[in-house]
Amino acid sequence: MSLYKTKGIVLRTHKLGEADRIITILTNNYGKVSAVAKGIRKTKSKFGSRLEPFTHVDLVLYRGRSLDIVTQAEIINSFSSIRDDLDRITYGSAMLDLVNKVSVENERDISLFNLLLKGLDVISQSSRNLRLLLIAFDIKLMAISGYMPKLDYCAVCKKRAGAKLKLSFEQGGIVCNKCSALDRNSIFVTPAAIETLSKLIRLPLSDVAELDIMARIEDELYLLVQDYVSYYIQTTLKSRECLSQLIHSH
Known about the structure:
Layout: E1 3-16, E2 20-27, E3 31-37, E4 56-62, E5 68-77, H1 80-83, H2 86-102, H3 110-125, H4 130-147, E6 165-168, E7 173-175, H5 177-180, E8 187-189, H6 191-202, H7 205-208, H8 215-233, H9 238-249
Parallel strand pairs: 3-5
Antiparallel strand pairs: 1-2, 1-4, 2-3, 4-5, 6-7, 6-8
Helix pairs in contact: 2-3, 2-4, 2-9, 3-4, 4-8, 6-8
């Protein structure tokens, strides 16, 4: 039997047949894995609630022809405080969805795994700065995916960009006045927003939870980073639309 062990974070689940589910898991050793949990929807399932989204689990899987099969699952951390709170579950779901979008089947990415695990750990313990934490999570994810924005100098001519700054998604960073004329889609950004974004890239997520950022700067950064992410993943995730509704309702 081709069994293997790994640790993983459940990204999503969907029904299969009458009693089973397909579980999408980001593992620390094998990248994203899709596996069947047989009988999980039965009341006496051996898995219980161990394979719910957000759960950090210890797994034993069997390699199948098309889909692997979960044979054992033990909870390391259920992150139940995320699922018990509307704000946390909305921000947490936004993290899971983005990771699911950028992660590759069977391609190990330990940096992405560790970032997601840390992100879930921080929002499970923090009730403040959730939007700022998501901004930091998103931009760190873009950085480890190869899309670190250039913020110290013009992304085109490499010179200091001056006081009037624009951000070009196409060029992957700030551009000076002269070079911004070459990209009509570049948008104005404030120096304070760029300075804060640089800080968020550098700081550990646990420190981001303690920051005090002016509301207008956070507002600007949220829209900026959401657009930056959407540009590179070439879609708008449904969880992000739900998040925007939540923000506007507060």
